[in-house]
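Sample intake sheet
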Amino acid sequence: MFQYAAAAGSQSSNILGLVGPFVLMFVVFYFLLIRPQQKKTKTRNSMLRALKKGDKVVTIGGLHGTILEISDDIVVLRVNDVTKLTFDRGSISHSVTTEADSK
């Protein structure tokens, strides 16, 4: 009877020894990969929501322009005095601010 209890105790520690490294790896991956990516996505989504008419932006393709019209999913950019281009809202990479705009 004592042998059975000792065997059951060693099996549970053996399972913890096998599962423990996987749990530790998941925790490390979470803090090094998953959590920073979630923060980056959250800040990008808040930037896209905050876009407004007149903002200077850069698209994912590197095109610079000023927002003329904006809706839920479409953005119309003025590239120069004559050219207007239509993009998906998600294709905006970032908003450009200059020192003159912030003053």
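Comment: The chain has a mean pLDDT of 86. The CA atoms of residues 56 and 66 lie 4 Å apart.
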